[in-house]
Each structure stands twice: as C-alpha cells, then as structure tokens.
C-alpha cells in the first residue's frame, strides 16, 4: 500500500494531528497512532521527524482543504485507510465530541468518501476496542 510519497504522507499526518488536537488534548498515545500511520506508508522514514514537520504544517494552516486535496486524488482503499487512522485517533480517548464528529463529516465530504463506509469503519473500531 506504499502509494503515497513523503510529502503526501506528511500532509495527511498534519490532518491526523489536527484531528488529535481538535479536542484540545494532544496525547502521547495520539502521537504514537500518527507515527504508526507514517510508518505504514514510509518504511524508512524517521517517524519523529515526519511528525514534527506535520505538526508544523498543522500549526501554520487553517485550511482543511490543504490536507484533503492530497487524499481526494487517491483510491477508495487509501481513503478508507486514512479514515480508519483518523477514527483511531478520535476514539483513542473514549469520547467523540461534536467537533470531532463535525471534522469527520467535513473530511468525508471533501474527499468524496461515502458516509456509510465512514460509519462502518467507526463502528468496527468501536466494537474492537
């Protein structure tokens, strides 16, 4: 599944950082989940470095579109994988607040990802917790 280049993975990691920070609690566990995403696409990258770059991008960008345009161009399998990583981060603290739900709805719309598939991913992850 190695179809994203380093720049794309860094941009998507920035979206994951955004999802992690939206509830104003950016935990070490969420950072580990983001590094897992990075590692799944960039086998030989320095995960800490990529995460630092992603955090910087997220800090300097108030445009969700910057991140979603990268995802939109990919296959449904890649989109599905990214949505799964987003949900893992959001449910990692055992609560889903309105801002997190809203973010997921907006991302689904922006990347043309079916709501039904998004809901199925969320349910599967919640049931496996």
Q: State the end-to-end distance.
A: 25 Å
**Structurally, how many domains make up the residues?**
1
Can you tell me the CATH superfamily?
TerB-like
| Coarse structural class | mainly alpha
Helix fraction, binned, reads over 70%
The parts where pLDDT drops under 50 for at least 5 residues are none
H and E string: HHHHHHH
Please describe what this structure looks like:
By secondary structure, the chain is an all-alpha fold. The protein has one domain (6-127): Orthogonal Bundle (TerB-like), CATH 1.10.3680. Helices cover 74% and strands 0% of the residues. The chain has helices at 6-21, 28-41, 47-60, 64-72, 76-91, 98-111, 115-127. Helix 1 runs antiparallel to helix 2 (28-41), helix 1 runs parallel beside helix 5 (76-91) and helix 5 (76-91) runs antiparallel to helix 6. The protein is globular and about 30 Å long.
Brief digest:
The chain is mainly alpha-helical.
Key traits:
129 residues, mainly alpha, TerB-like, 7 helices
How does the SSE layout of this entry go?
Layout: H1 6-21, H2 28-41, H3 47-60, H4 64-72, H5 76-91, H6 98-111, H7 115-127
